[in-house]
Amino acid sequence: MAPPPDNPLTMNDYTKLRKTVYEKLCQAQNKLPNGWKFRIYEGLRSLNVQKILFDSLYNSLKLKKLAQSEEELFEQTSLLIAPVKFINGTINIPAHSTGGAVDLEVTNKDGDLVNFGMEIKDWNTVPPNICETFSQNISEEARKNRQILLNIMYEQEFVNYPY
User: Going by DSSP bridges, is the β-strand pair 37-42/103-107 parallel, antiparallel, or unpaired?
Assistant: First the structure.
C-alpha cells in the first residue's frame, strides 16, 4: 500500500512527473467522457520508497507462503512493484523513480471514483488478478470503463502495465 501523502518519505514526490508525462496526461484528460477527471495517486517515487514498497510486499508474500522458492517470490513481487535490484544484483531504475510512470484514479463530475473494479488503494489486498487490466473478475461496467481509459491513454502514447 502506498505510504500516506503526509509521510515525510513521499510528501514531496508523489505528485511530481516528467514534463512530457504531465503534458500527455493533460491531453488525455481533455478526452475523458462524462465529466471524468484524473486524480494522481502516485507519480515519482524515490528509490528508497520503491525499495520499501518492494520489500514490504515481498515479506508479506513470504509470510503467506505463496511461492515455493526465492526466485518465484521475487517474480511474484515484481509483478506489482518493480525492484531497485534484480535478483542477480543488477541495479534497476523503475519508471516511477524517474517520474516516467503515473498511477491514476478517475473521478466523475461529483468527485466520486469511477468504477474500475477496485480502488487503487486496495491494490495489495484484492486478489491479484483483479489488478490485471483485462481481469474477468470485475463487472461489465468496470471492464468498459477500463477500456475507455485504455483507449484514451494509448492515443497519448502511454503504455499500460497489465498487472
Answer: antiparallel
Write down how long the chain is: 163
pTM for the whole thing? 0.84
Q: In the chain, helix, strand, coil percent, each to 5? A: 40, 10, 50
Cell numbers at residue 125, please?
489486498
Q: In terms of Cα–Cα distance, which of 33, 123, 139, 134 is closest to 79?
A: 123
pLDDT tens digits, residue range 95-108? Answer: 999 999 999 999 99
* Residue where the block lists cell 514490504: 56
List, for residues 119-141, the tens digit of each pLDDT value.
888 877 777 788 899 999 999 99
Category of 125 on φ-ψ map: left (φ > 0), alpha (ψ -120 to 50) or beta: alpha
